[in-house]
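Sequence in, structure out. Go.
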Amino acid sequence: MKGAIAWFADNHVAANLLMFFLLIAGIITAFSIKLEVFPETTLDKINISVAYPGASPEEVEEGVVRRIEENIAGLTGIERIDSKAREGSGSVTIEIMKDWDLKKLLDEVKAEVDRITTLPDEAEKPVIRELTRQSQVVSISVYGDVSEASIKHVAETIKDELTNLPGITLAEIAVSRDNEIHIEISENTLRKYGLTLGMVAAAVEKNSLDLPAGSVKTTTGEVLIRTKGRRYYAPDYHDIPIITHPDGTNVTLGDIADLKEGFADVDLYAGFDGKPALIINVYRVADQNALKVADAVKTYLAQIKPGLPNGISIGIYNDWSKILKSRIELLTKNMFWGLLLVSLILGFFLNLRLAFWVTLGIPISFAAGLMLLPYNDVSLNMISLFAFIMVLGIVVDDAIIVGENVFRKQEEGLSPLAAAVEGTIEVGRPVIFSVLTTMVAFGPLLMAG
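Output:
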């Protein structure tokens, strides 16, 4: 330790170059580092989802889920497999063993699933992905004393326009009932045409599916064919044939039923300011900056507010970026006052030159720490900012201890160079061990998983 301290004290150019390098590197990192509310965490899970339009839960289980389970069951590193089969889709979730290489297992799962050749022709290509927690930034409330359909139409428009903005990738509507088409047929009408509800349902299902229909080989390559029969709005259902007469004429669904657009009959309600509402959650994705995402959302909302339909309002329901911004401001304010107080105290009781260099060491140490964050895959977030705020006090205390001891050595008659070396070495060991004890106290957090 003595050799390094003495060498830097005796080589001013090298010490100053290193100081400027750390300071500039830290400033550059501060403008490019990822900003998020909470650090990204993986769930150590892999999800395989497969769409199988028109299939019952039993068909999904037999044709898709079990075949995937059989193929991946032999892979090492799997702790548990959970599967779900529902109408039209199925999913398999893999929980991996602790400390296992998730990326490697993900590649192995993809390879095994790609080897499956017995999936139903109607099933779509499996989607395999690593499960992560989404990082929510802002929640927007769309509310008013109007119909649910009107609120949902405005909410969907806002969601689509938000995701088209630069820097915003993901926005989702929460607490929303699914759209449904209500088909109402009287018993008299069913008797008149000799129909049952089951027969009508089968005809509607047959004419409302979006299914793959094979492929055709041509001289220019293979062309995939898909039937686009899915219908989304009530008028689309009017022309579905229910009965076909020998002369070719049809009795359509519109002839025998009342068709209305509505919502699923589930007990689901959201309110804001005492009025019905829908919530839009906006997320930060990948390396997006949480503060920039929040600012883009607020700017957009301010622009569209004057043009909203009568009776509909919008407001910020939850803004996580405010908490992040307040922590950054707290760190900046504490650093400013820390630098000022250290400068005043050391300058008053010791001397101004020593106070200047000791004070300068505080932002340089922070710049060095900031520079190293991206190399350890650490972002600026609530946790890392708390660490910076806590460490600020330790750095200030240690700077005062070292500075005071150097000044004492000067008063004893040593030259400035010798005082800097001897004064630092004398308190260096206890200062280092005081920092190490703090690191040991927080060490268990490194093992928290």
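Check: The first strand starts at residue 42 and ends at 51. The CA atoms of residues 405 and 423 lie 5 Å apart.
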